Amino acid sequence: MNINDSILVLYSKIWLEDYDELMQIFLPNFSTEFQARIYSYRRKEDRLLTLTGRKLLSRGLQLLNVKANIFDLDYNCWGMPFLKGNLIKFNISHSHQIAICALCIQGEVGIDIEHLEDIQIENFRNTYSISEWNIIQNSPDMREAFYRYWTQKEAVLKALGKGFNIPINSVKLQDRKARVCSKNYHLIEIKICPNYSCHLALSTLPFFGLNIYEIKNADIKNVGAQLLKK
Description:
By secondary structure, the chain is an alpha+beta fold. The protein has helices at about 20-25, 30-40, 45-65, 130-135, 140-160, 215-230; strands spanning about 5-15, 75, 80, 90-95, 100-105, 110-115, 170-175, 175-180, 185-190, 195-200, 210-215. Helix 3 (about 45-65) crosses helix 6. GO terms for molecular function: holo-[acyl-carrier-protein] synthase activity; magnesium ion binding.
């Protein structure tokens, strides 16, 4: 795999029956701050999704033959994680039963996935421009259109490295591109599971394209076992 010109995306589905094993065996290897963050989540699903996201990052680094410490990440002033002293850029997202991680070395990367829940779309009117809102309102599937735009905008804010510290309505969308804070981003839809919306935001398009891998549950456990041996 050409690390310099590719985007790597890995995703995995969580299973609650694996909760005790992953939490008791693998979580203690992470920093106390990360462990506290995990336990701050009330739902077991959210704890498992967050831990799985970190395991996907580790698996992605293995595929790219990159050595890095994923147990104790650094964070920028906006609270976004990064690999200290490493050119690899990554971003992690999760929703419902899916965790997903994107990695690249060229430019900035952000990814967002959302399960298509039933929500009061009207409550988010100020999130969208007039034209975006009109498209959502006139769409045959308003929920799908809402989440399509939402995941695009959030992926861009994550690629920017500031997350929701920047108002989401400041992201301007046009076709498969976005602009925020005087920066331009390319948008790519990632289709992995029904009833999910997922988008990737990139500051630079990869020459060799996009590589997507589903990491099965057994592979997640194998990653953890390999980490414990290091």
